Amino acid sequence: MAQRDVSSRGSSKQNTFFGGAAILAVGILVVKLIGMFYKIPLVNIIGAQGNTDFTNAYNIYAVLLTISTAGLPVAVSKLVSEANAQNQQNQMRRTFQLALGMFLILGVVSFFVMYFKADMLAEMMHDTKAAPGIRALAPAVVCVGCLAALRGYTQGHLNMTPTSISQIIEALCKLLIGLSLAWWLVKNGQPPETAAAGAITGVTVGTMVALVYMVLDYTFKGDGGGRLGQDEPDAPADIVKNILRIAIPITLSSSMVGIVTVIDSSLVQGQLQRVLLEDRACWELYGRFAFVDFGPLEEAIANWKAVLPTGAAATMAVLSQQVDAAQKALASGAALGGLESAAWEVHTLLESVSRSLYGNYGAALNIYNLPTSLMAAITASVIPAVSGALARRDRRGASRVSGSALRITALLSFPMGVGLFVMGRPIMMLLYPALEKDLAGPLLSTLGLATVFVCMMLVCNSVLQAHGFVNLPILVMVVGGGLKILANYHVVALPKVGIYGAPIGNILCFGLCLGLDLFLIARVIPRRPRYLEVFLKPLLASALMGGAAWAVYGLGSKLLMKLGKLCVVDEVTKQVLGLSRTGNALMTLGAIGVAVIVYGVLVVALRAISRDDLSLMPKGDKIARLLRL
């Protein structure tokens, strides 16, 4: 009976490859939208410092999670799909059981690392306050490992619905439980790091609930209780070898982004603290922000220098040695000496400032990551569409699909990138009133330029992979990641640049990756798309759209200011009523609305999208007729 059910599901429309890709794409989009409603209020609840603690803990979790789960679900789905096609029930069952065991082993190892080495991992990120969040996330690694095995199994049956539903359940629990806990902890006077750990607890609970759903789905709809087949499964060693053969390359490529992110985050925060200690020229850069008070830090540094041994330089290297000595003394229960106590106070204040600075940058990163998540539907569709055309020896069709994918991505990513660049400060004022608009706004504007490069790079990678060049995107990412780390290490250390230089590494990294991808596509893929046709019209339309948004916001803001001067309302009352925030919201939403209209008109007028492009999209033919293309 279970076998017949599996077969019937496999023949249904929703379980075709394209139907499954659509289900996954919709699920990913819903999850990302829920994530937006989670992360934006969260920063306003826990503040910049809490956001840094949350981000650092989550980055550690993301790396260990990717190592544990990135390649194995793909390997399981591939092997289960092959066995299912040959009606090998016992082979499917043994593959799943062995994969589940591998997930559990990796998950338990990752749990022990995160829980018992949380302090060490937090120190590695130059944020000792991130340790509670890392511990709170530790159980999630084990749960997600089991989730990945179950998701890979159902996807191997071409049934994508359980994966999408479980991801949505996970995101909803994170939203409801995480935000509620963070708000309750802040309301009860808990420090930012505790509130961040509460928010992260929502992630852990979400993975547990999603795991319960997947287990129930497997038990009642899968073959958890199905009869044994007649086939003789392969030896366990052979199955494990096949799983690893598929999983290891995917894991290496997937882990690269997370590893680069962790290294970059650690270096940026470490460099911020070093320069704050060693070069007071940067104090002028940050002194105008409300959250920075250099008085206590100046006094602490003076006290520390007064007790330094003769001839010792007041550098970060010397401070780190003395902080290590203080931590060992505290761990053993001994009292701190005068030197260790003074060093500990300097370290605490430096960390506090860098947490506030990086928290503003982390909030800008939340907005910057939204456009890339919208590329999931395109990247999910490119590989099967191009691969299918190549399998039919239709090189012209493969070229057409590749060109359309690049053009649609450009039409989506260019306006989003330009919009973030032009409207960075107003957007941050609208979404994150608790942060420093003069810090977070310019950071988002700079990241807006990188958005275009990231989105285009993701689709270029899919085009290369669809043509069989699987390892080239990995090598490109390694080169780009190295440049990002090198650039941020040096640029953030410049006293006149500081945290404002952090997004520059993103621009250089993904700009280089995109350039290399386009070069490789031109060299290794026959009938490559014509880049001028792909990029010129979207770039022109986006530039004009950005100018319109800038003009509407600027003129509207000046008009509101003049109206405000005419009103018989004193400045104190204006601040109490929040008129400035309301005015910014009106002007920002108005500018975005005008920008959307202007861009839509320009895309149609310039014929920036073709009937072939629209034919690849749902209801594309109807849209083409409506636009008379």
Which tags fit this structure?
single chain; 629 residues; mainly alpha; 23 helices; 0% strand
Question: Describe it for me?
Answer:
This protein is mainly α and 629 residues long. The protein has helices at 2-11, 17-69, 72-85, 89-116, 118-124, 131-156, 161-187, 192-221, 236-278, 283-286, 294-307, 316-332, 338-373, 376-391, 395-431, 437-466, 472-491, 502-524, 531-566, 571-577, 579-605, 611-615, 620-626. Helix 6 packs parallel to helix 8 (192-221) and helix 16 runs parallel beside helix 18 (502-524). It is globular.
What is the compact description of this entry?
The chain is an all-alpha fold and 629 residues long. 82% of the residues lie in helices and 0% in strands.
Gross morphology is: globular
Q: Which regions contain 5 or more consecutive residues with pLDDT less than 50?
A: 1-20, 575-579
- Reading the helices and strands in chain order gives HHHHHHHHHHHHHHHHHHHHHHH
Radius of gyration: 27 Å
What's the total count of β strands? Answer: 0
The whole-number mean of residue pLDDT values reads 82
What characterizes the major β-sheet?
Answer: none
Strand content: under 5%
Number of helices: 23
Provide the structure class: mainly alpha
User: Helical proportion?
Assistant: over 70%
Q: Distance N terminus to C terminus?
A: 50 Å
